[in-house]
């Protein structure tokens, strides 16, 4: 048998804990709140089919030819208009890069900025795939404490002072994955100021901001950025469909240029047909109305989940009650081993993602993430009852 000499970037065997969890949760008997998928019944399949037809009719040859690494110009223009309207983030074409999912922005930013041993400051907890990406480039993580309003700015400044080799602050300020927490405007302004003061970059990851079902919109960190320290990324994955793999970065032109070179070596460019299809979709459909529909459904599902927590969970359990997005976060006191708790819940035919992989450092025992976007109402009702019973038994 060949002993393959994988690079240091490749995770060791047996470290894909989340893969194992999702596999266990995929059993059809199990009601799973573990995944992170949008509700497929709201995908605009017919409208997108028409948009794909139009893309072929109007741009058939360009769609099938190699294209520009920065993306299709018409889509970049639509993205600029979109971020201006939604987030008051302004720029020119040179500030926009279309990427293969916003996941690719994480990878390109890691590749462009993180040398082995550089510090990346992350929320505690944070999006686990961002941890995987930055780890593959040799990042040293420092976790910044959160409260109900997201990353704490005094903790962030202390971390910046203590870690002069910090390159990057990574944040998901809206309806964070995994906690569902949202950072208020004053903290965002402070975050932009700290980035400038300590000359570090902020990577603002905003896949969920538009999926708001309660409360008021909060301006993007990028809207407070005066000198290019904030890199803003978002995606069509949650507002339209993840299968097209379309995300984007809005940043200083110098950053966009460097990331474009790196993107060329990764995949030359993002799928042209997907880009032209979305160009046509946006030209002929009301994305805002569609997003309202998604938000209304997720709001209803979140409400049911919270009702289930109140009715069935043991006393003393803490949970977040997000105003948007797809996830909420639960903390069960008195639990030492969250993976063991996960296994006990599987026996009750219900699943979540244990909190452990979302922590760069020591995990918080008893914490886990629940997804409500991808579970139908009757499943949420039944699943929360089963989960409550499992937790009652576990904390006895
Ligand atoms: C916080 C966060 N960032 C980035 C992504 C990547 O999304 P995509 O590559 O589909 O744009 C996700 C997906 O779930 C996410 O939760």
UniProtKB/TrEMBL annotation:
Domain named Aminotransferase class I/classII large: which ranges? Answer: 48-383
Gene3D superfamilies of this UniProt entry? Answer: Aspartate Aminotransferase, domain 1, Type I PLP-dependent aspartate aminotransferase-like (Major domain)
Coiled-coil spans are none
Does the UniProt entry include the keyword Kinase? no
GO biological process assignments: alpha-amino acid metabolic process
The protein's assembly and partners: Homodimer.
Q: Which GO molecular function annotation, any one, does this entry have?
A: pyridoxal phosphate binding
Pfam family, any one: Aminotran_1_2
UniProt cofactor(s): pyridoxal 5'-phosphate
The similarity annotation says: Belongs to the class-I pyridoxal-phosphate-dependent aminotransferase family.
Specify the superkingdom: Bacteria
Q: What is this protein called?
A: Aminotransferase, class I/II
- Keywords of this protein's UniProt record, alphabetized? Aminotransferase, Pyridoxal phosphate, Transferase
Recorded hits in InterPro entries, A to Z, give: Aminotransferase_I/II_large, Class-I_PLP-dep_aminotransf, PyrdxlP-dep_Trfase, PyrdxlP-dep_Trfase_major, PyrdxlP-dep_Trfase_small
* The EC number(s) this enzyme carries: 2.6.1.-
């Amino acid at each position: 048998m060949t002993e393959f000499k994988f690079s240091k970037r490749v995770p060791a065997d047996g470290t894909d804990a989340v893969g194992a969890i999702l596999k266990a949760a995929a059993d059809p008997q199990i009601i799973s709140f573990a995944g992170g998928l949008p509700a497929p019944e709201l995908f605009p399949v017919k409208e997108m089919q028409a948009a794909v037809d139009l893309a072929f009719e109007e741009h058939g040859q360009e769609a099938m030819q190699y294209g520009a690494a920065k993306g299709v110009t018409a889509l970049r223009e639509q993205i600029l208009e979109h971020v201006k309207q939604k987030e008051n983030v302004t720029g020119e074409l040179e500030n926009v890069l279309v990427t293969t999912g916003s996941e690719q922005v994480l990878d390109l930013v890691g590749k462009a900025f993180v040398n082995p041993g550089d510090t990346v400051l992350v929320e505690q907890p944070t999006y686990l795939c961002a941890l995987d990406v930055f780890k593959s480039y040799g990042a040293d993580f420092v976790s910044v404490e959160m409260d109900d309003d997201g990353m704490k700015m005094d903790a962030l400044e202390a971390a910046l002072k203590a870690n002069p080799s910090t390159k990057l602050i990574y944040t998901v300020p809206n309806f964070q994955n995994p906690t569902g927490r949202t950072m208020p405007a004053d903290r965002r302004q402070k975050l932009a100021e700290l980035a400038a003061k300590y000359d570090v970059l902020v990577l603002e990851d905003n896949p969920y901001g538009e999926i708001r079902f309660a409360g008021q919109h909060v301006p993007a960190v990028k809207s407070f950025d005066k000198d290019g320290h904030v890199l803003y990324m978002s995606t069509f994955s949650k507002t339209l469909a993840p299968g097209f793999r379309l995300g984007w970065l809005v940043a200083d032109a110098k950053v966009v240029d460097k990331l474009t070179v790196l993107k060329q070596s990764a995949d030359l460019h993002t799928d042209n047909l997907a880009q032209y299809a979305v160009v046509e979709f946006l030209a002929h459909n009301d994305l805002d109305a569609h997003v309202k529909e998604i938000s209304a459904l997720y709001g209803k599902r979140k409400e049911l989940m919270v009702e289930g927590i109140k009715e069935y969970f043991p006393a003393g359990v803490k949970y977040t009650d997000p105003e948007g997005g797809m996830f909420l976060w639960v903390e069960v006191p008195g639990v030492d081993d969250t993976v063991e708790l996960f296994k006990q819940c599987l026996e009750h035919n219900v699943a979540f993602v244990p909190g452990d992989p979302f922590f760069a450092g020591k995990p918080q025992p008893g914490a886990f993430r629940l997804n409500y976007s991808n579970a139908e109402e009757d499943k949420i009702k039944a699943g929360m009852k089963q989960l409550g019973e499992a937790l009652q038994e576990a904390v006895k």
